[in-house]
UniProtKB/TrEMBL annotation:
Keywords: Membrane, Transmembrane, Transmembrane helix. This is Putative permease. The chain crosses the membrane at residues 6-36, 57-79, 135-152.
């Protein structure tokens, strides 16, 4: 019996650890989606008077998708140009320095630097290229949570308000008086 509990406890801890490792990179996207949803909540309420709650949330999410698409495209273009320029400048400097008549040993050091730097720069460029899918996943989670927070804002408010200190103070005061 004791061994079985230890095994199940270990399995539970492993599953909890793996779940945490999976969800942890997305927590910042969820957190900022909640903050932005709270920030645009007055606008959402005004739009909700003209249309229903889901359409209002959808309109704001579509506007956010347009804005985030523009920012994403701009970032990709800036990063691409920056990396290409950086790589070309480094390679130009190394080619130029290899043509110089330098004292003994320095030419060999520059050649070794060139042969070591080229793979490192390629690795650096690849790390930026591979970070784009992670960014897009976080963006999708952000947009989905933003929409969900707006659609369910009334239910979230009903769940949060009774647990605030202010609401507890009013309840205590009402109980003392009544």
């Amino acid at each position: 019996m004791k061994t079985e509990e230890i095994i199940w406890g270990t399995v539970t801890l492993i599953i909890a650890y793996l779940a945490w490792r999976t969800i942890a990179p997305l927590l910042s996207a969820i957190f900022f989606a909640a903050i932005l949803a709270y920030a645009v909540l007055p606008l959402h309420k005004r739009l909700g008077k003209r249309t229903d709650n889901k359409k209002s949330a959808l309109i704001l999410t579509i506007l956010l998708i347009g804005l985030s698409s523009l920012v994403t495209v701009e970032l990709v273009l800036i990063i691409k140009n920056l990396i290409v320029s950086f790589y070309e400048d480094i390679m130009t400097f190394i080619y130029w320095s290899l043509t110089l008549e330098l004292p003994f040993g320095i030419h060999d050091v520059l050649q070794k630097l060139y042969f070591q730097l080229t793979p490192k720069l390629a690795e650096y460029v690849q790390s930026y290229a591979f970070s784009i899918p992670k960014y897009l996943l976080q963006l999708i989670i952000f947009l989905a949570m933003f929409y969900a927070f707006l659609v369910n804002s009334d239910e979230i408010k009903k769940q949060i308000y009774p647990n605030t200190w202010r609401a507890r103070g009013f309840r205590r005061k009402a109980l003392k008086e009544g």
